[in-house]
Amino acid sequence: MGKGIDFTVFKGSAAGGIVQATSHRDEPTGNQVLVKVTHSGICGTDEHFKHADMALGHEGVGTVEQLGEDVKGLAVGDVVGWGYVHKTCGTCIQCLAGHDNYCTAHVMYGTGNLDQGSFGSHAIWDASWLFKIPAGIAPEDAAPLMCGGATVFTVIDTYNIRPTDRVGVVGVGGLGHLAVQFLSKMGASVAVFSNTDSKRAEALQLGATEFYATKGTTALDIAAPLDHLIVTTSFLPDWSLFLNVMKPMGKIYPLTISGADIVIPTMPLVTRGIRVQGSAVSSRSSQIKMLDFAAAHKIRPIIERFPMTKKGVEEGMAKLREGRVRYRAVLVV
Hints:
Distance between the termini: 22 Å
Strand content: 25-35%
CATH superfamily of the largest domain: Medium-chain alcohol dehydrogenases, catalytic domain
Shape: globular
CATH architecture of the largest domain: Alpha-Beta Complex
Number of helices: 9
Number of strands: 17
CATH class of the largest domain: Alpha Beta
Protein backbone atom coordinates (compact mmCIF):
# COMPACT_ATOMS: atom_id res chain seq x y z
CA MET A 1 0.00 0.00 0.00
CA GLY A 2 1.34 3.39 -0.99
CA LYS A 3 0.89 6.68 0.82
CA GLY A 4 -2.72 7.12 1.84
CA ILE A 5 -5.53 4.65 2.40
CA ASP A 6 -7.00 1.98 0.14
CA PHE A 7 -10.43 0.72 1.11
CA THR A 8 -13.25 -1.45 -0.22
CA VAL A 9 -16.52 -0.01 -1.50
CA PHE A 10 -19.65 -1.53 -3.04
CA LYS A 11 -20.84 0.44 -6.04
CA GLY A 12 -23.80 0.57 -8.36
CA SER A 13 -23.42 -0.06 -12.09
CA ALA A 14 -25.17 0.74 -15.36
CA ALA A 15 -26.77 -2.71 -15.33
CA GLY A 16 -27.91 -2.27 -11.71
CA GLY A 17 -25.64 -4.96 -10.31
CA ILE A 18 -23.40 -4.45 -7.27
CA VAL A 19 -19.68 -4.06 -7.98
CA GLN A 20 -16.96 -4.50 -5.35
CA ALA A 21 -14.17 -1.98 -5.93
CA THR A 22 -11.24 -0.28 -4.24
CA SER A 23 -11.07 3.45 -3.54
CA HIS A 24 -8.00 5.45 -2.52
CA ARG A 25 -7.80 8.58 -0.38
CA ASP A 26 -4.98 10.56 1.15
CA GLU A 27 -4.80 10.37 4.91
CA PRO A 28 -7.16 12.79 6.70
CA THR A 29 -6.08 16.40 7.14
CA GLY A 30 -7.78 19.55 8.42
CA ASN A 31 -11.31 18.73 9.60
CA GLN A 32 -11.37 15.26 8.04
CA VAL A 33 -11.96 12.00 9.90
CA LEU A 34 -11.13 8.46 8.81
CA VAL A 35 -13.94 6.13 9.88
CA LYS A 36 -13.73 2.35 9.88
CA VAL A 37 -17.25 1.30 8.87
CA THR A 38 -18.88 -1.33 11.08
CA HIS A 39 -22.56 -1.02 10.10
CA SER A 40 -24.72 0.52 7.41
CA GLY A 41 -28.44 0.76 6.93
CA ILE A 42 -29.86 0.03 3.49
CA CYS A 43 -32.28 2.82 2.61
CA GLY A 44 -34.82 2.99 -0.18
CA THR A 45 -32.87 5.93 -1.60
CA ASP A 46 -29.90 3.62 -2.23
CA GLU A 47 -32.09 1.90 -4.83
CA HIS A 48 -32.29 5.17 -6.76
CA PHE A 49 -28.51 5.08 -7.31
CA LYS A 50 -27.97 1.39 -8.06
CA HIS A 51 -27.47 2.22 -11.76
CA ALA A 52 -24.85 4.89 -11.01
CA ASP A 53 -21.09 4.33 -11.00
CA MET A 54 -20.76 5.42 -7.38
CA ALA A 55 -20.21 3.94 -3.94
CA LEU A 56 -23.54 3.24 -2.28
CA GLY A 57 -24.81 3.76 1.25
CA HIS A 58 -25.57 6.77 3.44
CA GLU A 59 -26.68 5.35 6.81
CA GLY A 60 -23.21 4.70 8.15
CA VAL A 61 -21.83 3.92 11.60
CA GLY A 62 -18.25 3.12 12.50
CA THR A 63 -15.27 3.92 14.70
CA VAL A 64 -12.88 6.83 14.34
CA GLU A 65 -9.42 5.64 13.24
CA GLN A 66 -7.60 8.87 12.32
CA LEU A 67 -8.21 12.59 12.76
CA GLY A 68 -7.12 15.63 10.81
CA GLU A 69 -5.22 18.26 12.77
CA ASP A 70 -8.22 20.63 13.04
CA VAL A 71 -10.82 18.15 14.31
CA LYS A 72 -12.29 19.01 17.70
CA GLY A 73 -14.71 17.03 19.85
CA LEU A 74 -13.86 13.60 18.44
CA ALA A 75 -11.24 11.07 19.48
CA VAL A 76 -9.83 7.87 18.03
CA GLY A 77 -12.16 5.02 19.03
CA ASP A 78 -15.33 7.11 19.15
CA VAL A 79 -18.41 5.52 17.56
CA VAL A 80 -19.83 7.94 15.00
CA GLY A 81 -22.51 8.00 12.35
CA TRP A 82 -23.42 10.00 9.28
CA GLY A 83 -26.38 10.38 6.97
CA TYR A 84 -27.42 11.90 3.66
CA VAL A 85 -25.62 15.24 4.02
CA HIS A 86 -21.80 15.24 3.90
CA LYS A 87 -20.97 18.93 4.25
CA THR A 88 -22.58 22.37 4.22
CA CYS A 89 -21.20 25.88 3.70
CA GLY A 90 -22.02 27.26 7.15
CA THR A 91 -22.48 30.80 5.81
CA CYS A 92 -25.71 30.86 3.76
CA ILE A 93 -28.97 32.08 5.30
CA GLN A 94 -30.26 28.51 5.67
CA CYS A 95 -27.14 27.40 7.55
CA LEU A 96 -27.15 30.47 9.78
CA ALA A 97 -30.82 29.88 10.63
CA GLY A 98 -30.13 26.28 11.67
CA HIS A 99 -31.76 24.83 8.57
CA ASP A 100 -28.47 23.53 7.20
CA ASN A 101 -30.23 20.55 5.58
CA TYR A 102 -31.37 23.15 3.02
CA CYS A 103 -27.92 24.66 2.49
CA THR A 104 -27.61 26.13 -1.00
CA ALA A 105 -24.06 24.77 -1.40
CA HIS A 106 -24.37 21.37 0.26
CA VAL A 107 -22.45 18.20 -0.56
CA MET A 108 -24.83 15.25 -0.35
CA TYR A 109 -25.12 11.57 -1.15
CA GLY A 110 -25.39 11.08 -4.89
CA THR A 111 -23.82 14.46 -5.72
CA GLY A 112 -20.42 14.34 -3.99
CA ASN A 113 -17.90 11.87 -2.56
CA LEU A 114 -18.99 9.35 -5.19
CA ASP A 115 -15.91 7.25 -4.46
CA GLN A 116 -17.05 6.38 -0.92
CA GLY A 117 -20.20 5.52 0.99
CA SER A 118 -21.36 3.48 3.95
CA PHE A 119 -21.33 0.26 1.92
CA GLY A 120 -17.64 -0.46 2.38
CA SER A 121 -14.75 -0.80 4.79
CA HIS A 122 -13.73 2.84 5.40
CA ALA A 123 -14.60 6.41 4.49
CA ILE A 124 -13.21 9.89 5.14
CA TRP A 125 -15.75 12.53 6.13
CA ASP A 126 -15.77 16.13 7.25
CA ALA A 127 -16.17 16.17 11.03
CA SER A 128 -18.90 18.80 10.84
CA TRP A 129 -21.49 16.21 9.72
CA LEU A 130 -20.33 13.28 11.85
CA PHE A 131 -22.41 12.52 14.94
CA LYS A 132 -21.32 10.76 18.11
CA ILE A 133 -23.53 7.77 18.80
CA PRO A 134 -24.77 7.79 22.42
CA ALA A 135 -23.52 4.87 24.51
CA GLY A 136 -27.08 3.61 25.00
CA ILE A 137 -27.59 2.87 21.29
CA ALA A 138 -25.96 -0.18 19.69
CA PRO A 139 -24.17 0.62 16.39
CA GLU A 140 -26.43 -1.74 14.43
CA ASP A 141 -29.48 0.12 15.76
CA ALA A 142 -27.91 3.53 15.18
CA ALA A 143 -27.36 2.98 11.45
CA PRO A 144 -31.05 3.20 10.36
CA LEU A 145 -31.52 6.23 12.61
CA MET A 146 -28.96 8.22 10.58
CA CYS A 147 -31.41 8.72 7.71
CA GLY A 148 -34.69 6.89 8.39
CA GLY A 149 -34.97 7.98 12.01
CA ALA A 150 -33.69 11.48 11.29
CA THR A 151 -36.15 11.97 8.43
CA VAL A 152 -39.22 11.39 10.60
CA PHE A 153 -37.83 13.07 13.72
CA THR A 154 -37.00 16.27 11.85
CA VAL A 155 -40.69 16.67 10.96
CA ILE A 156 -41.60 16.41 14.66
CA ASP A 157 -38.82 18.80 15.68
CA THR A 158 -38.98 21.39 12.88
CA TYR A 159 -42.75 21.70 12.61
CA ASN A 160 -43.42 21.67 16.34
CA ILE A 161 -45.57 18.59 16.74
CA ARG A 162 -46.76 18.72 20.35
CA PRO A 163 -47.53 15.99 22.94
CA THR A 164 -51.15 17.19 22.90
CA ASP A 165 -51.51 16.66 19.13
CA ARG A 166 -53.21 13.84 17.26
CA VAL A 167 -50.87 12.54 14.57
CA GLY A 168 -51.61 10.12 11.75
CA VAL A 169 -48.87 7.89 10.34
CA VAL A 170 -49.53 6.32 6.95
CA GLY A 171 -47.55 3.09 6.61
CA VAL A 172 -45.78 0.84 9.11
CA GLY A 173 -42.46 0.30 7.35
CA GLY A 174 -38.90 1.54 7.55
CA LEU A 175 -39.93 5.12 8.37
CA GLY A 176 -43.37 4.53 9.81
CA HIS A 177 -42.38 2.13 12.59
CA LEU A 178 -39.85 4.71 13.82
CA ALA A 179 -42.31 7.60 13.53
CA VAL A 180 -44.80 5.72 15.73
CA GLN A 181 -42.15 5.19 18.42
CA PHE A 182 -40.91 8.80 18.44
CA LEU A 183 -44.43 10.22 18.54
CA SER A 184 -45.75 7.89 21.21
CA LYS A 185 -42.73 8.40 23.47
CA MET A 186 -43.23 12.16 23.32
CA GLY A 187 -46.85 11.71 24.36
CA ALA A 188 -48.76 12.32 21.13
CA SER A 189 -51.82 10.26 20.20
CA VAL A 190 -50.82 8.18 17.16
CA ALA A 191 -53.31 6.85 14.61
CA VAL A 192 -51.74 4.38 12.18
CA PHE A 193 -53.12 3.77 8.69
CA SER A 194 -52.04 0.63 6.86
CA ASN A 195 -53.32 -1.25 3.84
CA THR A 196 -54.45 -4.32 5.79
CA ASP A 197 -54.81 -5.50 9.38
CA SER A 198 -51.58 -7.56 9.26
CA LYS A 199 -49.52 -5.01 11.21
CA ARG A 200 -52.17 -3.97 13.73
CA ALA A 201 -50.72 -5.78 16.75
CA GLU A 202 -47.19 -4.61 15.99
CA ALA A 203 -48.24 -0.97 15.49
CA LEU A 204 -50.09 -0.96 18.82
CA GLN A 205 -47.12 -2.58 20.53
CA LEU A 206 -44.85 0.15 19.13
CA GLY A 207 -47.08 2.81 20.71
CA ALA A 208 -49.96 3.54 18.34
CA THR A 209 -53.24 4.36 20.08
CA GLU A 210 -55.41 3.60 17.03
CA PHE A 211 -55.08 1.47 13.88
CA TYR A 212 -57.10 1.67 10.66
CA ALA A 213 -56.93 -0.65 7.64
CA THR A 214 -57.55 1.38 4.47
CA LYS A 215 -57.69 -1.13 1.58
CA GLY A 216 -61.02 -0.85 -0.22
CA THR A 217 -62.14 1.97 2.08
CA THR A 218 -63.98 4.95 0.61
CA ALA A 219 -64.22 6.91 3.87
CA LEU A 220 -62.30 6.86 7.15
CA ASP A 221 -64.21 6.78 10.42
CA ILE A 222 -61.64 7.66 13.08
CA ALA A 223 -61.87 8.65 16.75
CA ALA A 224 -61.19 12.36 16.14
CA PRO A 225 -59.63 14.57 13.42
CA LEU A 226 -55.85 14.82 13.04
CA ASP A 227 -53.53 17.78 13.61
CA HIS A 228 -50.77 16.20 11.51
CA LEU A 229 -50.40 13.40 8.97
CA ILE A 230 -46.99 11.88 8.18
CA VAL A 231 -46.98 9.82 4.98
CA THR A 232 -44.20 7.20 4.97
CA THR A 233 -45.38 4.70 2.35
CA SER A 234 -43.45 3.97 -0.86
CA PHE A 235 -46.51 5.10 -2.84
CA LEU A 236 -48.74 8.14 -2.55
CA PRO A 237 -52.11 7.56 -0.84
CA ASP A 238 -55.62 8.53 -1.89
CA TRP A 239 -55.52 12.13 -0.69
CA SER A 240 -59.30 12.58 -0.71
CA LEU A 241 -59.51 9.82 1.92
CA PHE A 242 -57.19 11.64 4.31
CA LEU A 243 -58.18 15.27 3.74
CA ASN A 244 -61.53 14.44 5.32
CA VAL A 245 -59.93 13.41 8.64
CA MET A 246 -57.69 16.47 9.00
CA LYS A 247 -58.48 19.31 11.38
CA PRO A 248 -58.78 22.78 9.87
CA MET A 249 -55.24 24.12 9.38
CA GLY A 250 -53.86 20.59 9.77
CA LYS A 251 -50.53 19.70 8.19
CA ILE A 252 -49.60 16.85 5.86
CA TYR A 253 -45.97 15.74 5.42
CA PRO A 254 -45.40 13.55 2.35
CA LEU A 255 -42.05 11.81 2.95
CA THR A 256 -42.57 9.44 0.02
CA ILE A 257 -39.94 9.52 -2.72
CA SER A 258 -41.92 7.80 -5.45
CA GLY A 259 -41.27 9.97 -8.50
CA ALA A 260 -45.00 10.61 -8.83
CA ASP A 261 -46.46 14.11 -8.67
CA ILE A 262 -48.70 15.02 -5.76
CA VAL A 263 -52.23 15.74 -7.00
CA ILE A 264 -54.54 16.88 -4.21
CA PRO A 265 -58.19 18.01 -4.35
CA THR A 266 -58.10 21.80 -4.15
CA MET A 267 -61.39 22.57 -2.42
CA PRO A 268 -60.78 20.97 1.02
CA LEU A 269 -57.17 22.18 0.93
CA VAL A 270 -58.27 25.80 0.43
CA THR A 271 -61.46 25.96 2.45
CA ARG A 272 -59.95 24.28 5.50
CA GLY A 273 -56.51 25.83 5.33
CA ILE A 274 -54.66 22.51 5.17
CA ARG A 275 -50.91 22.72 4.57
CA VAL A 276 -48.84 20.22 2.57
CA GLN A 277 -45.29 20.53 3.91
CA GLY A 278 -42.20 19.10 2.25
CA SER A 279 -39.33 17.96 4.45
CA ALA A 280 -35.85 16.77 3.47
CA VAL A 281 -33.49 14.72 5.64
CA SER A 282 -32.36 16.44 8.84
CA SER A 283 -30.51 19.45 10.15
CA ARG A 284 -27.58 18.79 12.46
CA SER A 285 -29.50 20.08 15.46
CA SER A 286 -32.43 17.75 14.77
CA GLN A 287 -30.05 14.83 14.20
CA ILE A 288 -28.37 15.35 17.57
CA LYS A 289 -31.71 15.73 19.35
CA MET A 290 -33.02 12.60 17.62
CA LEU A 291 -30.08 10.49 18.81
CA ASP A 292 -30.39 11.81 22.37
CA PHE A 293 -34.16 11.20 22.37
CA ALA A 294 -33.76 7.66 20.99
CA ALA A 295 -31.16 6.84 23.64
CA ALA A 296 -33.23 8.29 26.49
CA HIS A 297 -36.44 6.51 25.47
CA LYS A 298 -34.88 3.28 24.20
CA ILE A 299 -36.26 3.75 20.69
CA ARG A 300 -34.82 1.09 18.40
CA PRO A 301 -35.46 0.17 14.79
CA ILE A 302 -36.62 -3.35 14.03
CA ILE A 303 -33.78 -4.66 11.88
CA GLU A 304 -32.69 -7.54 9.67
CA ARG A 305 -28.94 -8.13 9.40
CA PHE A 306 -26.92 -8.88 6.25
CA PRO A 307 -23.15 -9.29 5.91
CA MET A 308 -21.13 -6.36 4.53
CA THR A 309 -20.16 -8.31 1.41
CA LYS A 310 -21.13 -8.09 -2.25
CA LYS A 311 -23.60 -10.93 -1.73
CA GLY A 312 -24.93 -9.34 1.46
CA VAL A 313 -25.52 -6.00 -0.27
CA GLU A 314 -27.27 -7.73 -3.16
CA GLU A 315 -29.49 -9.80 -0.86
CA GLY A 316 -30.38 -6.86 1.38
CA MET A 317 -31.22 -4.55 -1.51
CA ALA A 318 -33.26 -7.25 -3.27
CA LYS A 319 -35.31 -7.94 -0.16
CA LEU A 320 -35.91 -4.21 0.33
CA ARG A 321 -36.88 -3.83 -3.33
CA GLU A 322 -39.43 -6.62 -2.92
CA GLY A 323 -40.91 -4.99 0.18
CA ARG A 324 -40.05 -7.94 2.44
CA VAL A 325 -37.76 -6.23 4.99
CA ARG A 326 -39.21 -5.75 8.48
CA TYR A 327 -38.34 -2.97 8.85
CA ARG A 328 -34.76 -1.80 8.20
CA ALA A 329 -31.97 -3.80 6.58
CA VAL A 330 -28.54 -3.37 8.19
CA LEU A 331 -25.19 -4.45 6.76
CA VAL A 332 -22.83 -5.73 9.44
CA VAL A 333 -19.07 -6.06 9.06
